[in-house]
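## retry 2 of 3
previous attempt timed out at serialization; input unchanged, resubmitting
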Amino acid sequence: MIEAIVIILVVLAVLAIAAAGASVRVLREYERAVVFRLGRLVDQRGPGLVMLVPTIDRMVRVSLRTVTLTVPPQEIITKDNVPARVTAVTYYRVVDPNNAVTQVESYDRATLQIAQTTLRSVLGGADLDTLLSERDRLNDELQHVIDAQTEPWGIKVTTVEIKDVEIPQSMQHAIARQAEAERERRAKIINAEGEAQAATRLADAADVIGRNPTTLQLRYLQTLREIGATQNSTVVFPMPIDLIKPVLEAIGSGQTSQPGQAGPPAAAPAQVPAEVPAPAANGALESGESRALAPGPDAVAVPVPDVVPDAVPVPDADADAVPDAVPAEDGVSSAPESAPVERQD
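## retry succeeded, writing output
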């Protein structure tokens, strides 16, 4: 009888110890306990020692630490129809353990799926340049969108970062050419600005040097010193313009005083001898003829136009000399040979 009572007491003690072990839980500082009693939610407990009613209470452990969630690579098409492959990482933590257990079946998997769909939708609405250059803005937008959808689950998304953006090889070459052209454009602009500033400074320096001619001579000497320092075989001897200015002025004045010598001399007009009619048999003069005297036994009658130009006077009948040239009616001067003219009283 006594032995039976002892056995019963031992069994009860073992059951009590087992029940005590099943009803006692120890939670770490970053853990919280969601307790269900007969299926109904009880207030969260922890950290530390948590007592449960055996066979009545059920506990679910929830960690409050930040979780790193890697989003698998997503194939997207940007706004400007460029295919890209994007990977991202998401950081979140549980702020309400009760909602994280009761509002969603598995908050880890749910957060992963919502991060993938949000990544595709947000990055698909941006062009490639924005995707490559404005990552901070896109990260903030992704964080706000995902956090707004996970907030009812008791999940706080703290950070979303785009890890890598992979684009086709041909597009990489195009971007490289664009970057090279942009750098060349900037280099040309900087060079042009430098030349403009240098021209301005040179103009100021010329104004300063022009006030004192000695400054220019000192500049010449400094240039010679710099050339000699480089062990160059070329010798440059500057000659001031003031030394050769009188020579240039003399040459210019000589050309101005002789304008006819600028080109080859013009050919003189050909002189056509006038036809001299034969004198009359009785020595009388015809109408429109005059007679000039010249040394020699014979006399020659020279036709004279009715209207004589003012520039050439008509010789007198008693004149002893004959002019060298007599203007003809057609404006061509004739130069007949000197011939003796018979003097008639």
